[in-house]
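step 3/5: co-fold with magnesium ion
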Amino acid sequence: MSLIIQKYGGTSMGSPERIREVAKRIAHYQAQGHQLVVVPSAMSGETNRLLGLAKQLSDDPSGRELDVIASTGEQVSVGLLALALQSLGLKAKSYTGWQVKITTDSAFTKARILSIDDANIRRDLAEGYVAVVAGFQGIDSDGNLTTLGRGGSDTTGVAIAAALKADECQIFTDVDGVYTTDPRVVPEARKLDSITFEEMFELASLGSKVLQIRSVEFAGKYKVKLRVLSSFTPHDSNDTGTLITYEEDNMEQPVIAGIAFNRDEAKLTVTGVPDRPGIAYSILGPVAEANIDVDVIIQNTSSEGITDFSFTVHRNDYARALALLNDTVKPAINARGVTGDNKIAKVSIVGIGMRSHAGVAAKMFECLARENVNIQMISTSEIKTSVVVDEKYMELAVRALHAAFELEKTTV
Ligand code: ASP
Ligand code: MG
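step 4/5: write tokens
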């Protein structure tokens, strides 16, 4: 017998019929002798609907109230799923985050889990219950309801798995695993049987939307055995989804695991910057103070004491960053001008094989050159290379790279 945590996403919980299917799947696992804690998301579209209602009543809604509102989506889900399980004859009990209780910090709308009291869940499991725990929510030390950020039910699932030292945390979603890239862009994309934690972490940070980044971070910290599965395959199918692994099995490891892309970025350049100590700080200090996250950064070598300085930000922050550079930074450092482009995209190749193989980045650049895709910026780390390109060439770049690295082919 093993202890399994199963997280079901919003699409899987989308209607009473779907919830009944989820209940049947849970019953199937229980019949095999497993103990189960189940973490559902809100029904699909529900969180957006709730936050939309809030926006109709306030231009600047307080985070505390947003969390009171948004957390109801998962509360409805746990109640409905518990009923569906009971109708199948299973013993099931629903819990909100605070009933468990899941304690978080007080960063409303993006709280972090601090601790989980597992007493209730352990008692239920011992008595043969399926514990149904609301994802995405918790309570702070002052008793305020909190939520964990969009997609936060993944993190609830992984955190519960860590707290209970579960044998496996299964994330059921509307895709059947982690792919070499998004199959909507590259039809030949291939499902991976396994991927290392480091690669999954990079892919999630670089724009792959399969798992919430914080859940991957959490899984890595506590070495949670994590598996991504589809909730739309038959209950008794042998589909094993994608397993996130922690050992590096070099023999079977392809150089590149996958390609991530992200249209959410924008580029800003400060031109004619007098090159002297402290200049990067004079530009990026005010940006950081305005709470704008910076991603790729490039400073050119200077010619006659003058240089250009470019960086990327989230597209939502573009207007604010542009205004800040024009109004505050440019006059302060006596730069010549500020330009920007919010029609860019970042394409990244990720693979732990890059550590031991030279020339991987060069192969990426060669492929893009062949396709006539101009690279605007490059950034690298040990296991990834990212390029910033014009948004209109993004899909072309992803498809060409997928073919160049032969990701459609299975290794071994
Ligand atoms: N319902 C929340 C959201 O839509 C949390 C989740 O689905 O994981 O972001
Ligand atoms: Mg989700």
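step 5/5: annotate
The pocket of magnesium ion (ligand 2) is lined by residues 9, 41, 151 (CB under 6 Å).
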